[in-house]
Design goal:
Blueprint: H1 10-19, H2 26-36, E1 41-44, H3 51-65, E2 76-79, H4 83-96, E3 104-107, H5 114-122, E4 126-129, H6 131-139, E5 150-153, H7 156-161, H8 165-174, E6 180-185, H9 190-199, E7 204-207, H10 213-217, E8 218-224, H11 230-240, E9 246-250, H12 253-265, E10 270-273, H13 279-290, E11 296-300, H14 301-304, E12 314-317, H15 324-331, E13 341-347, H16 352-362, E14 368-369, H17 385-389, H18 393-400
Parallel strand pairs: 1-6, 1-7, 2-4, 2-5, 3-4, 5-6, 8-13, 8-14, 9-11, 9-12, 10-11, 12-13
Bound molecules: adenosine monophosphate.
Length: 445
């Protein structure tokens, strides 16, 4: 099966060949003909399956087939949850459409709106947007959605997780009723099913990737380690394994920043990427990571969603996600397009339940390997043992509260045990007062 068999026009075949694609991926084999035939589509597919080309290629073909309809207002709208994904889709659309006269624009929040207003004024055929910024632009009269014929909801599950349902509903009200709708989602919750039911008319259902396929191709393992030693073990794994590119997941923005500094302190080049970073900083960090100028990219779930980093060899779950499905998304950052990859999880005692939930979802165990011996190197001076012992009780409790958990939003079980011999060493009791909220944590002592 080749792309030519899918009914794509020569201009697109040329662009695809130049990208180095030989064969369509399963989602492309099914989605491209369905979209070209004018059908609504409900597709279960994750990032990494080639889903973007699955909807972008046929849309480009249809849009270029009726140039007389071309005007200032876009005819196709792709909604995505994150800026990075939006930018990536727009890049892909421009790449695939390089031999066509299709104008693609992308709009997302977190950056100056004015250039986006100007870009929309210049006119476009395909608009890729995050929902909030799109509504802002519409309210300001800059985005005209009255001529949309094609709507794609990409990573719809993530958009709902991120609370975009109301924005999506508002956008839907602004669109013409007569249109072709495509919904892509890695997972199917009841909310997604409801949305699909409301949105799609007799859709072609495609499920190319059982949602845990990453699980099949990514080599997974876990190490048990007290949370205060995670950073040392991570530094050890990076050094000893001679890792050159590792994406590390933390649960919180603050945790990402802190780990990034700690890695840097341990001599490992790192950058953090999360929602509090400016778009420019995120792009800069991502580029540095892709080009191999930094070894570790420390990211929160949301920021990493949709990132397409070619042949990413290592993913580390520095903290397990609260939602088991997110584990699958995370490890899906590696092992992409059939390439192998390794995902390592660092499990502290309080995360045992989270690991069990993940294993239940995967329907298999994540192998827990013996934790290798590693050195605990404090970057900053250790707190003298005597001082640690003479603290007031309240203070002492707050020191023991794991800073990584201090920002956990729901679901996590911060209670943890101090039963690890190594965790009793004075240098591990270094206070991190500014991040601790001792009262929230149930302590073992
Ligand atoms: P996506 O799931 O759309 O994020 O795509 C994942 C990665 O697969 C991207 O780097 C694409 O460039 C790449 N890709 C998409 N389609 C193909 C194909 N048919 N053959 C090889 N690579 C592809």
């Amino acid at each position: 099966m080749s792309f030519a068999n899918l009914g794509l026009m020569p201009e697109l075949l040329r662009a695809v060949a130049e990208k180095g694609y030989d064969t369509p991926t399963p989602i492309q084999r099914e989605a491209i003909p369905a979209v070209l035939a004018g059908r609504d589509v409900l597709a279960g597919a994750q990032t990494g399956t080639g889903k973007t080309a699955g909807f972008v290629l046929p849309l480009l073909q249809i849009l270029s087939g009726s140039p007389e309809r071309r005007g200032q207002a876009p005819r196709a709208l792709v909604l995505t949850p994150t800026r990075e994904l939006a930018a990536q889709i727009a890049d892909n659309a421009r790449g695939y459409g390089r031999y066509l006269k299709i104008r693609t624009q992308v709009v997302f929040g977190g950056v100056n709106i004015n250039p986006q207003i100007s870009a929309l004024k210049a006119g476009c055929d395909l608009l890729v947007a995050t929902p909030g910024r799109l509504l802002d632009l519409q309210q300001q009269g800059a985005a005209n959605l009255s001529r949309i014929e094609f709507l794609v909801l990409d990573e719809a599950d993530r958009m709902l997780d991120m609370g975009f349902i109301h924005d999506i509903k508002r956008v839907l009200k602004l669109l013409p009723a007569q249109r072709q709708n495509l919904l892509f989602s890695a997972t199917y919750s009841d909310d997604i099913r409801n949305l699909a039911q409301r949105l799609l008319r007799e859709p072609v259902s495609i499920q190319v990737t059982p949602r845990n396929t990453a699980v099949e191709i990514v080599e997974q393992c876990a190490y048990r380690v007290p949370k205060e030693h995670k950073r040392h073990l991570l530094a050890h794994l990076i050094r000893e394994g001679d890792w050159h590119q590792v994406l590390v997941f933390t649960r919180t923005k603050h945790g990402a920043n802190r780990l990034c500094q700690q890695l840097e302190g341990a001599g490992i080049s790192a950058a953090a990427i999360h929602g509090n970073k400016s778009q420019a900083a995120r792009v800069k960090a991502l580029e540095a990571f892709k080009q191999g100028r930094i070894v570790a990219l420390v990211a929160t779930e949301v920021a990493a969603r949709g990132l397409d980093i070619k042949e990413l060899p290592h993913v580390v779950n520095y903290e397990l996600p609260n939602v088991p499905e997110d584990y699958v998304h995370r490890i899906g950052r590696t092992g992409r397009a059939g390439a192998g990859g390794a995902a390592v999880s660092l499990i502290s005692p309080d995360e045992a339940t989270l690991l069990r939930d993940i294993e239940r979802l995967l329907k298999r165990a994540v192998p827990v390997l013996p934790t290798p011996p590693f050195t605990v190197n404090e970057a900053s001076p250790a707190r003298p043992a005597v001082a640690a012992r003479t603290e007031s009780r309240a203070e002492s409790r707050s020191h023991r509260a794991a800073p990584e958990r201090s920002e956990t939003r729901g679901g996590g079980k911060p209670a943890h045990s101090r039963a690890h011999g190594s965790a009793q060493r004075p240098h591990d009791r270094r206070p991190q007062r500014s991040h601790s909220r001792g009262g929230r944590f149930r302590q073992g002592s």
